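A reminder from the course coordinator: this example appears on the midterm review sheet, so study it carefully.

Given structure:
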């Protein structure tokens, strides 16, 4: 009887350890989708915005460590496409046009909380800090100027994920990286399809 009880306890212990280990581990992932800019690159009451153009293709590469079925720490790097504003200035009888071009690169670190809804499907949220490197180009005729700056802000994300196998999952995520410049009122977000591999 003692041997049987010991065998049962040992079996439960091994099974529990196996389940816990399945929830732990490092992972890498890729998200491809659409970047969305909101606000204005340049705020100047002497000019009018007469055109906007988006080149919204964006992507994120991320990696992290999942401690259990509910919590992970993640860091990532993303390129957020391109956004152009066309400004018109009137000086006397002459009208001048300037193109303001912005694109952002984001680097973030976030805590990730997960909620399992069944054996293969889960919802999650992220909250963290993002360093947004905004690169601007001002073009008018033959004149071009370039500026760059880094702005740190709070980022957040929500998503849903389906576990296809023990190692591979796919999902959909919305991420908001906040303002890309502390002076201009321009912020960036990203909606993408994720693929994640857990080692």
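Designed residues:
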């Amino acid at each position: 009887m003692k041997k049987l009880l010991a065998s049962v306890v040992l079996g439960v212990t091994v099974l529990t350890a196996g389940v816990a280990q399945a929830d732990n581990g490092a992972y890498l992932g890729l998200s491809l989708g659409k970047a969305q800019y909101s606000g204005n690159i340049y705020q100047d009451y002497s000019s009018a915005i007469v055109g906007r153009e988006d080149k919204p293709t964006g992507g994120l590469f991320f990696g992290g460590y999942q401690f259990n079925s509910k919590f992970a720490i993640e860091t990532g790097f993303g390129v957020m496409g391109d956004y152009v504003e066309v400004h018109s200035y009137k000086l006397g009888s002459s009208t001048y046009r300037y193109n303001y071009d912005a694109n952002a690169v984001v680097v973030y670190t976030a805590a990730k909380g997960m909620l399992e809804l069944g054996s293969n499907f889960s919802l999650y949220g992220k909250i963290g800090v993002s360093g947004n490197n905004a690169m601007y180009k001002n073009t008018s005729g033959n004149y071009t100027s370039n500026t760059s700056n880094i702005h740190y802000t709070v980022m957040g994300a929500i998503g849903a994920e389906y576990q296809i196998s023990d190692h591979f999952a796919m999902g959909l995520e919305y991420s908001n990286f906040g303002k890309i410049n502390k002076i201009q009122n321009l912020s960036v977000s990203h909606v993408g399809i994720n693929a994640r591999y857990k080692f």
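Residues 26-198 form a domain with the Porin fold (CATH 2.40.160.20). The chain has one helix and ten strands.
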